[in-house]
Amino acid sequence: MSGIEGLKKVLESIILNPKYAPFLAVLKAARNGAVYGAKVRFPHALVMIFLFRSGTVQEKMKLIFRATRTHAHNLAKYASIYKATMLLLRYMGSEPGKEGPYDTFFAGLLGGYVVFGRRSKRGHISSVSKQIVIFVFARVVLSLAELSIRPSAGIIRNNELSKRIGHDAWPVFAAVSWASVMWLFRWYPDTLQSGLRSSMDYIYVQSDHWDGLRNFLVYNK
């Protein structure tokens, strides 16, 4: 058996040992967070930056890799903090080794504050962090809205009323959301996230200007 094969066997015996599984899960979560963050951010940044940012190709590529690195780092760090906190709380509770009912909330609270809630040394919060938090917030609101009309858990206990609200709520939510964002873009565009503002400017503002057939059909003026 070669030295490499022996080392591989030793490492596999460690990672497959159930005794170490809770601790190794922290490392695995960090790895998965980094990979997922890179997979999600790179194509998004590639499209958005090349479409809406000015500058040379080299400058744009730097922005793309910076956004990708930030997203991957944030998710890896958050996953590590969350998993490590869950592990710590499991052994600090009234029943050691058993997960408490609010452990996930407090672990998420700590990770959210440390990774996404704090400002940089210059007092800024990165646009990538804002986008991730807004994405999560939107999903949380939708989930809580659905939970609120679930007869077994929400404030609406009547099955028929719950179904009716569930059926009609989405059209109202969609209409009000688009009405609100168009009003904000028209009168308070500085309050909108920069990526959203850029895309809306491209669609609704730059479409008002042309001086010939070429920049009417092929590209903007």
From TrEMBL:
It comes from the Eukaryota. One of its GO terms (cellular component) is peroxisomal membrane. InterPro entries: Pmp4 (IPR019531). This is Peroxisomal membrane protein-like protein. It comes from Hyaloscypha bicolor E. The lineage of its organism: Eukaryota, Fungi, Dikarya, Ascomycota, Pezizomycotina. Pfam families: Tim17.
